[in-house]
Amino acid sequence: MRQALVTGVALLLGAWALWVLEGARAGITVEELRYDKTPVTVYSSDATGPHVVIAHGFAGSRQMMQGYALVLAQAGYIVHAFDFEGHGMHPHPMGGDVNALDGTTQRLVEQTRAVMDRVAGDAPVALLGHSMATDVLVRVAQDDPRVGPIVLLSAFSRAITAEHPTSLLLITGAWEPGLTDFALEAAQMVDPTAQAGQTVTQGEVSRRALLAPMVEHVAILQSRTGRAAALDWLNGFYDRAGSAPVPQTGWALIALLTAITVLAAPLARLFPQQSIEIDPPTTRQWALLTLVPAALAPAVGAVIDLQTLPVLVADYLAVHLFVFGVTQLALLAWLRPTPPRPNLSAAVVLLVWGLGAFGLALDRYGANFWPIEARVPIIAALAVGALPFMLGDALTTFRAPLWQRTGLRVAFLASLAVAVALDFEGLFFLIMIAPVIVLFLLTFGAMGRGFAARSGPLTSGLALGIVLAWALGVSFPLFSA
């Protein structure tokens, strides 16, 4: 009875989420185009409205920006959201020196201007960008009369001055303390008395720093306050009165992904219950299975210098996962009985549910999840490490109490932190891996537990190893020096 109730609630939650997310697209024409090699999604409901070019942040994609794109398109703007080089579906890797203005940044500036060349009309083109893109857009606007109002989310750019850009709205999450200070300082360049939420002007320069409540660096992309303010700012510049609803797409996306995660349990019950003679690890066993791999992985990774994959830190991460997982599997072979063979049919269903249902939902409403051809060998290489890692994780956490499951995952993240400390400059981008790992374990880990309980831990470990390699392989930018 309880299981039927949970399934029913998950179905209702998913239905509500789809109603909200699809409703946000109502009346909008969505076109998938390419401007030269750059993938572009064009959103429009009025072919005569001003053009807006939207750019995402580091490790993002144009799908991540659709919360703003859809609202602006509903209000009559023609929105062009694109993937930077090396991101999303763009086939060409990022390049140049990431620490030099005339390196990677300049290449992204040139790419953005190439997109503008395709969309510039009689009215100035509006620009909207997040995080990394904010510096790019400010530099794009330098000495370019085609640029109109600019909206920056979670901004930081040394190119902002008291005179440039002339029409600038800075939206920062209230939980981004350093960036909130920067946004206010940018407004105070125009008027030293400027306060958050206040529009200040001096001559032709108009500027406002706005705090979006209860959001951080990622959630700002779904902030209702931020999206409404962006529309108001553009309407003020173009003297338009276009309006649009600002739906709860952020909560709807979370609800949809939660529903998909919960609905994996009834799928697992389609398979017969296996007899699994495995007890949870003792405290001593858990300590060995957790601390030894956590100490060994960064130590071995520090002396293996692979640089073959065209993705930042992917080589190291594959090695780290491999050492951690193989060490755990070796200890498990010594400490515990041999687990039953995996149910390959159940593993395929879990894999299809994870990559299909979850992946399709995420790709349509949240972030790019489908790899281009260039990422397939990267996923395969990451699978060499991800498969033993997830097999070891599934076996160690099988029937384990919450504190052991949590402690193991914290130890793995700590091992990544040690690796970064040993080579901060080379492995800095591993810091950005942590949220991906945490989200993966919260969602796919929950799916896997149901299948493990029914069909054995090797079943879930096998499927989730492939899913983890896939998730990591599509998340981080392609890069070539």
Word description of this protein:
With 481 residues, the protein is of the alpha/beta class. It folds into 2 domains: 26-246, Rossmann fold (3-Layer(aba) Sandwich), CATH 3.40.50.1820; 263-480, no CATH class. It has helices at 2-23, 66-74, 101-119, 132-140, 177-188, 224-238, 249-262, 264-268, 283-301, 314-335, 344-365, 376-397, 402-422, 424-427, 433-455, 457-475; strands at 29-35, 38-44, 51-55, 78-82, 94-95, 125-130, 147-153, 167-173, 199-202, 205-212, 479-480. Strands 1-2-4-3-6-7-8-10-9 form a 9-stranded mixed sheet, sandwiched between helices. It has a two-stranded parallel sheet with strand order 5-11. Helix 4 links the parallel strand 6 (125-130) and strand 7 (147-153). The longest helix is centred in the C-terminal third of the chain and has 23 residues, at 433-455. The termini are far apart.
List keywords for this structure.
Rossmann fold; 481 residues; globular; 2 domains; alpha/beta
